[in-house]
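Two quick folds needed for the group meeting slides. Do the first one here.
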Amino acid sequence: MDPLLRLIIIVVQSYLIGSIPTALIVSKRIFGFDIRQRGSGNMGSTNAMRVLGWKWGLAVQIGDVLKGLIAVLLVGYFFETEMPFVNRTPFEDATVVKMIAGLAAVLGHIFSAFAGFKGGKGINTSLGMLIAVAPVEVAVAAGFFLVALFASGYVSLGSIVAAITVPSTMVIRYNVFGVEIQGYHTLVYFLGVLSLIVIYAHRANVGRLLHGKENRFTNLMVFRRLFGSHHR
């Protein structure tokens, strides 16, 4: 098969996998309504937890993570050794294609072909892809996500902080601590672009945060309960 056609198939396949509207399927099949008409109207796991309950919300979250992970893993079955363009990165050809596939899956989740090109924010699908690409950065970002969530109660704020943390952590590890990261000069830009895509998908949330209208999980504001009680 022509290498360019093979790459196009991988990209389209990854986009379609990412486009699977997990929350919409669960809400319609299990509960009989369209989740886009409830809560914030978003098809991400946060709105699913709020509208469907934490168990089904967690199921949606796992499904969204798997979309990114599966898109990357399938590259091993469809990609062969020949690239349709010259690979000038320090990565192996297969790794470059995996990053492309992962990004296509994230875009599919945000702009779902099966839901009017409107989907979730891309955090969970990005997580699935990044687990294989940058596990250390994901672990650090997860910590910052939890700190922001437990301090503010805003999942969206935690997600934005995590998106910024992933490329920032790689920059700090490489430039400050001198950690040798294979393909750093390619990967850091890739993570930066992915971070910007996720932040762009949260632009409405940013507006609500600035105006104090964003939905908040007050029961998750652990730090206020722990430290606020000492000042009473």
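Then this one, please, same format:
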Amino acid sequence: MLLSMTGFGEARTQTDKLTVGVEVRAVNNRHLKVTVRGTDPYPMFEAELEKVVRRHVHRGTVTIHVRVERQAGTVDLTLNAATLTTYLRQIRAVCDDAGTPEFAIPLLTGVLALPGVAPETRSPGSPPAEEWPVVEQTLTTALTQLNAMRREEGRAMGTELLALHGVITAEVSTIRTLLPAVTADYRTRLLERVRLAMGEAGATLNPDNLIREVALFADRTDVAEEVTRLTAHLQQFAELVHKGDEAGRKLEFLIQELGRETNTLGSKAGDVAISRHVFEMKSALEKIRELALNVE
């Protein structure tokens, strides 16, 4: 089944200490790009969140918004008393020596922020251990909802792609039936023009020359190879749509090949009726190309 690259998913988890909400939005992109916004420190851990996303999404621009509400509670922290005492004594001594003891109190208010006084509460190199499992599970649930929406849209896109595939297949079939008549019609028109010219000039028509000219025209306008390749590409296109499974890049390549063969067919056929069918094929291909841009 095809997957769309656009969708939305959200999830919310609540524990005794945390309330976590995650929103995931996805739009089309040739590659996977993940952007993280929300409560600190999670925008700093984009790489860890991207690993979770890659289990569910392979192409597209994915924006994650993480909201974490932490319940107030008692935190058991132990200050480094020796370091704190040293800072306090030094600050007072410096202010006394400078003759400005009144500056000591304002300076002491920031002493807890000095290095070594209070312990680090979390490692700067990894997500908070006490929160990460909850955030990861909430993100996974949101991505599951996102994929449900992507599958639903992909199903509708697959139906539309197959309908347009049917239009092109029908046009190719019609062109195949018209091809023999193109050469015969050219022979008739050429013979009529030559006979008229010969009659006015009083000359005699050489059948060999007429046959040679018709043969040259038939060779220039022979599109049997293009029709065969179009038929093969169309069959492969239908198989990809039915199979799905990250078909976007393969579909883009096939659409390019279909466009190339269609353009060659239109330029070589040399017939107004066939040109009309080629125009319909190009119109359907353009719609297919727009849809395929959103296929993962």
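Slide caption for protein two: The chain has a mean pLDDT of 82.
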